[in-house]
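User: For my dataset I need records formatted as: sequence, then structure tokens, nothing else. Please produce one.
Assistant:
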Amino acid sequence: MERTKIFLPCSGLGRIRRGYESFTQECFEALLDEPRLDLHLFKGGGSLGGNETVLWSLPRASAPARWLGRLLRRDAYFVEQLTFFLGLRRHLAAGQPDVVYFSDGNLGNLLWRWRRKHGQRYRLILSNGGPLSPPFPRWDMVQQVSAVYYDDAKRAGQPDDRQVLLPYGFAIPKKLAVVEPTANAALRARLGLPTDRPVLLSVGAVNASHKRMDYLVRELAALPAPRPYLLMLGQSEDETASILALAEQSLGHGNFAIRSVRLEEMEQYYQASDLFTLASLQEGFGRVFIEALAHGLPCLAHDYAVAREVLAEKGFYGNFREPGALAGLVLNALALGSAEAARHARHRRAYERFSWDMLGGQYVAMLRQCAAMEPNTCAGGYVHGQPAP
């Protein structure tokens, strides 16, 4: 049987922890032993396993990337993608992949330009978890992870044979491992979390502009004592210092934590928590919702279409533009409690809709279908709503 060669490049993998990075790693691990595929992972850092390559690049958070970005009149994120792509070129030429499967739009544009200039034949699939806006004239296929964005692209003229609706896959075990109270107390003690009150977990970049961690702090501060302990896990950014200062002032030392943890450590933090929330008003998918749901946690979300699609009847919804909305949901969820049956039901929904056990075959079909297509011969045009650079 002929195997389809797939390149999965992700410059942030091994450096930062976002949805793009965790998905790319999980996808690689989930499909690596699939006999119809030959997968190769390219990342920006970290340890190496089989079929993995680290490519040098200027990290987006580095001073040289910011300096070069100013020189090029682009941002540091673009510089990271550009320098990462420079190392990827020789692998494209030597490896001759059938498909390059990517999430970063800048990298996709560079891959399209290189293919067009040098007459290479690899096909391009965008995993559109950002999401980027249509049209998508440069890429051969677009994976829409949400029906909301699939429908938007269809209305914008994206052909049915050039996009597929396929949600993110997740490494979810078939059965939920419930941590007994005694073991949970020991786990919390080991993680430096309190054992005498509920833990409210939020996972995402510690910023105010998108993840709205400042709103989360203010909402929790509005609750009467003893209020839940607030645990914010995510990448630090320029806005993190102000959120730390706000939490110190509003909640007080010892009532919250801001941490950046490795991907492999996340499971124990989900197990140690009682509630989960994401205060952002919009997400392309919100992978952390499914991670929390898969651990049986009640999930509190702003009421918007993608959150409803992902969490359905298992979510708690409110208008997070309004003061007091999240605080009210926290009280409601705590009052309802979290019976073991409810935790298992949340896990079961996550497993049945989003596990690799359920979706892996559809991913294989998508990749092989794209490999059989003729490469898009578009000569340029507009890319996700902006003039092509």
